[in-house]
Amino acid sequence: MTASPDPAIVQPRSPLGPPRSSGSTGRVVGALILREMSTTYGRSPGGYIWAILEPVGMIAILAAGLSILFRAPSLGTNFLLFYAAGLLPLRFFQNLSQSAGMAIQFNRALMAYPRVTYVDTILARVILAILTQTMVVLIIFGGIFLTQDIRENVDLAPVIEGFLLAITLGVGLGTFNCFMFLRFALWKSLWGIVTRPLMLISGVFYIYEDLPRIGQDILWYNPLMHITGIVRSGIYSTYDPTYVSWVYVLLFGLIPMIFGTLLLWRYGRDILQR
Asked: What DSSP string describes 197-225?
């Protein structure tokens, strides 16, 4: 005879939640996306308009200010296009890494529901961020090409590749930060300090080849420098950034993503219950 299980013993719930159908997961993520849209963009006047106006304003200020100092950008003749090609991939990364990193803290109250998992909250914020930033990129690049005298032969394949790498990097580091923000209170401040100079060291104002050799040797290890180089190689047909390595950027994003997911799965529920 086999002993029947003791009903008093309750099996612990997996940190990733109970098994669910793909349809159930889709409904949960969809509901979280709608909540994110209302809380992120629905509370401020203008909502999505500010998501577009902010990078437009930054690009316009950069183009106007630096055009006074320089006769022409490092590539091409249009300052707006040059700075947009550097700033938009950087903002894509920053928005995604912030959205993924704050996913659990932003939805902490919802984690009490058995159907809501870590994966759901991260997926919802990441999907909304990707859709929003894609809209911003298309509107800004479309506006520049429609209003400016652009004669560049654009190759969309490297441009798309660069933004896909920005997504991988943003989601990977954001997933790792999602755990670190929960586990170590000081990590958020340290991350803010480390990422503050990204606009200066990611090739927004210049190209890699403009730097002295010592600057190239140091900034090569910044994956965002590779991403801006790849995007610009698609916009400027004469530009061939031989320094870029998409494998390096891919590993820089995937390794933190794997470690972040494993750490959340193992320790996330315990941290939330403290």
From this structure: THHHHTTSSS-GGGS-HHHHHHHTT-HHH
Both tokens of 177, joined, read: 């930060």
For residue 27, the enclosing domain spans 22-272
The CA radius of gyration of the chain, in Å to the nearest whole number, is: 22
Distance CA 1, CA 4 (A): 9
255-272 core/surface letters (b: 16 or more CB in 10 A; e: else): ebbeebbebbbeebbeee
Tokens of 90: 């950087």
pLDDT tens-digit series, residues 233-261: 999 999 999 999 999 999 999 999 999 99
Is 220 within the bounds of a domain? yes
Look at residues 95, 222, 259 and name the one whose alpha carbon lies nearest to residue 167: 95
Report if residue 200 sits inside a domain.
yes
Beta carbons of 191 and 264 less than 8 angstroms apart: no
Q: Is-contact 187 83, C-beta < 8 A? A: no
| 200/145 Cα distance (integer angstroms) | 26
Query: Which pair of structure tokens corresponds to residue 13?
Result: 């719930």
pLDDT digits (tens, 9 = 90+) for 137-187: 999 999 999 988 888 889 999 999 999 999 999 999 999 999 999 888 899
Question: Per the domain annotation, does 2 fall within a domain?
Answer: no
* CA atoms of 75 and 81, how far apart (whole Å): 9
**Structural domain count of the chain:** 1
What is the C-alpha separation between 225 and 196, in angstroms, rounded? 15
The pTM is what?
A: 0.85
